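In response to reviewer comment 3 from the previous cycle, which asked for concrete evidence that the modeling workflow produces usable outputs, we include below a single protein chain processed end to end. The sequence was submitted unchanged, and the resulting C-alpha cells are shown without manual editing.
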Amino acid sequence: MTDALQIAGKSYNSRLLVGTGKYKDFAETRAAIDASGAEIITVAIRRMNIGQDASQPSLLEYLPPNEFTYLPNTAGCYSADDAVRTLRLARELLDDHKLVKLEVLGDSNTLFPNVRETLKAAEVLVAEGFDVMVYTSDDPIIARELEQIGCCAIMPLASLIGSGMGILNPWNLRLIIEQSTVPVLVDAGVGTASDAAIAMELGCDGVLMNTAIAAARDPIRMARAMKLAVMAGRDAFLAGRMPKKLYSADPSSPVAGMIAAK
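The workflow returned the following C-alpha cells.
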C-alpha cells in the first residue's frame, strides 16, 4: 500500500471503482468486479435489491459487504429531498453505513447533474454524519463549494453518463484537481481503457465507471483492461511524462562520441 487511495479515513489498493448495474445477472456482476480488482462498488438503491425485497435475489449474496466496500448511490433522484431520503434508507439497510455517493440529476435525457440540488443535499447529508462522495459537473467553483461543505471526494463527469465519449474537458479537470485537498475521481463518460488511463495521467485519484464495463461485448475482459489502464495511468502520472517540445529534435540515442564518417 505504498500508493493507497485514501477516502474517508480508509485505504484502498485499487483506484478503480465499479458499478453493479446493467449486467445480465449477478453472476456476471461478480465476475466483472473480480476481474476489475475494485474494492469499492456502487449500488443504485432505487434499482438494486439489497434486502428491500426478500422474495428476490439480493446483491448481498453475490458481493458480500465483508468483501467489498459498498457505495450506495442516488441514481434516479432529481431532487435534494429524494436523494437524502434514499441515502437514509441505504444507511438502514446496510447497518448504519456512512460512505455514500450523492448524485442529483437535472435532466432525464442527458443525466446532467443539478448542482443547486446537489449542494442542498450535500449540506444535509454531511450534517447528518454521512461521508459523501459527490457526482458533479466539471465546474471548478461548484467543486470547491462541495469540498467546503465537507464532501470527502469530488467526482466530476468526464462526459455524460453512459455516453462513452471520454474526457471532453481536461482543462477543467486539471483545475479541479489542482485546487482540491480531497480525492478527485472521474465519474461518468469513460468508454474504454485509454479514457481511464488519461484520467489518471491528468492526476485524478481514481475512476468510477459502470456502463463502460457492463455494456462491453466482453465485460470480464473489459474489466481487466480497465484495471490495467488505471494502474498504468497512475504510474505514468507519478513518473512524470517528458515535456512536449515543438520543432526540437532530440534523438533517442546519444550522439556524443559518434564515429565520424570518412
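The longest strand covers residues 131-136. We consider this sufficient to address the reviewer's concern, and the full set will be provided in the supplementary archive.
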